[in-house]
Amino acid sequence: MLKYERGQNRLCADRLPVWAALCNSSVEGLLGSAGRHAPIHLAGEGVMSLVQAFTAITDPSARQALIETARALALTDRQRREEPAAVLAAD
C-alpha cells in the first residue's frame, strides 16, 4: 500500500472498486477531490459483484458482449425514464 500512497505505483482505474471495498470506502473516497470530476458513480449495491464477475471472464468476445449488453440496457432504461417527460411536454 505504501507505494500506492506515495505515488510510486499506479493503480488501474478498473481496480478502484475492489480497492474501495477492501478499504471500506467508496471510489470517491479513495480519489478525494480528484473524484469530484469522475464521469460516473461507481459506488453502489451490486457494483462489486459486477466488476468481479466481469474480471473473471477471460474470453475477450464474451467481455465485449457483456459490455454491449450493459450499454443496451442502460440506453433502454434511460429512454424509458425520459418517455413520461416527453409525453408531458407534448401536452
Textual characterization of the structure:
The longest helix is centred in the C-terminal third of the chain and has 31 residues, at 60-90. The relative contact order is 0.08. The chain is built from five helices and no strands. The chain has helices at residues 2-6, 16-22, 27-31, 47-56, 60-90. The mean pLDDT is 75. The protein is extended and about 50 Å long. The N and C termini lie far apart (58 Å). With 91 residues, the chain is mainly α. Helices cover 64% and strands 0% of the residues. It folds into two domains: 1-56, no CATH class; 58-91.
Summarize this entry quickly.
With 91 residues, the chain is mostly helical. Helix content is 64%, strand content 0%. The termini are far apart.
The proportion of strand residues reads under 5%
In helices, the fraction of residues equals 55-70%
Low-confidence stretches: none
Order of helices and strands: HHHHH
What is the 3D form? extended
Number of helices: 5
How many strand segments? 0
- Averaged pLDDT, please? 75
* Distance between the first and last residues' Cα: 58 Å
